[in-house]
Amino acid sequence: MRKFFGFLLFLGLAQAQSLTLYTSEVLTNVNPMVELFRRANPGVSVQVFRSGTGEVITRLRAELEAGNPQPDLLWVADETFFRELAGANRLRAVRATTPGFPVRFAYQGGLYYEVRLLYNGIAVNTRRLGNLPEPAAWRDLLRPEYKDLIGMPNPNFSGAALSTLGTLTQRFGFGFFEQLRRNGMRVEQSNPVLQQKLAEGQYALAIITDFGIRDLIRQGAPLKMVYPRDGAILVPTPIGILSTSKNPALAERFLRFLLSAEAQALFAQQGYIPVVASAPRPAGVSGEVLAIPSAADYVQANRQGLLSQFNTLFNLR
Predict the structure, then answer these.
(1) DSSP E strands: which ranges in 8-82?
(2) Model confidence over 66-114: pLDDT tens digits?
(3) Which of 1, 9, 193, 263: CA 20 to 30 A from 171?
């Protein structure tokens, strides 16, 4: 009997020191952050499930419907899903206390947070583009000289791409994407797949997230990140704690750790722009990025219609 109660105590302690994170963030960036957290919190384990935003959301929806959600924390590039969870009282609020943290990024009173800033803009393979002029604004991508040179991630898989689809459709109309299609734009599954093909010269231009491009530039790729003069798109990539978390105190400790000076510095090393103003900037970024907010309200109201139109246009699914 004593051994049995000892086993139960062991199980309780193990559960108390473990977290499960569901994320669409790049695993090669998430793992070092998790390791940094573990070094600061000996004995803690963090299990990570990583896939594209769409697949992560589909998995969590199924678990919620079955009454058995697994993650303590969710970190994906789709603010509209966080709004849905908040509306169903499925998120746990965390009070913003980090010095220098802009409270506007603690959404809905701290139900979910931005922990670093990610922008969608236009990446250029300068070698493949050759003597052609670089695009300076979003509508420049419609120029005939860029025919068959442009790529974009799949918005069914990438939350950042869905955000961009909605934001640019709201601004220019869906005809903008119809014109891009006529100009030969192709769709790749994800940002990592597209950025690798861009670096290899399969594309000259890509509508893509900025941080991965900076990482490839550090590795010597002939790339450049262009923030359009009419505004790069600030892509929400929040993290929040599920109300069903088995370890809410430890989950809150992880979220607050992501806002620490140590974690913010690591974000900068990974090419992200930290959310805390006093943190260092990533190499190659000076000053503020001229940005427009993601059209989250528009995406939330028109998500299925946008994806249906896009899929038909590009023969997806």
Answers:
(1) 18-23, 45-50, 73-75
(2) 999 999 999 999 999 999 999 999 999 999 999 999 999 999 999 999 9
(3) 193
